[in-house]
Amino acid sequence: MTTDRAEELFRLQASPPRRAFAVGVLYVLGALLAYLAFAAPAAAGYRIALVLCGAVTMWAGERMRQGTKEAVVLTTDGLVESTGRVIAPLDRIVKVDRGTFAFRPSNGFLVTLDSPMERAWVPGLWWRVGRRIGLGGVTSGGQSKAMADQLALMVADLSTERR
Question: What pTM does this model have?
Fold first, then answer.
């Protein structure tokens, strides 16, 4: 499945203020943890742990910064990244959930597949574990709602055709 053949219906991308805030928080937290390792009197083990936690947090911030440059695109074939990476083919999607109690990212929605796919994660944009895909995070609530509604209609049409 490529976005060259499929028609693009919706594009879900990071909201610039949310993206800046989220990446900034991770960078600042990482820097504070590293600073605490050297500023506060502590045993060597604690210092190493603080430096490692700071490095991992800054790494997560960099992954989020890089990942949120891309967008999630809803095409007639399913969900793909703007880079062309397939998130979920339309024929494997069985349910779209935007409910209040759904285990989903903020400003996002949850997609359930018919069978598990490989784990993947783009911090702040989407994740996939087993049969579940969460889309959202630092995205605009309006964009994700529109995409979820359109995807739910497409899944309903597809399930009606299968009967």
Answer: 0.81
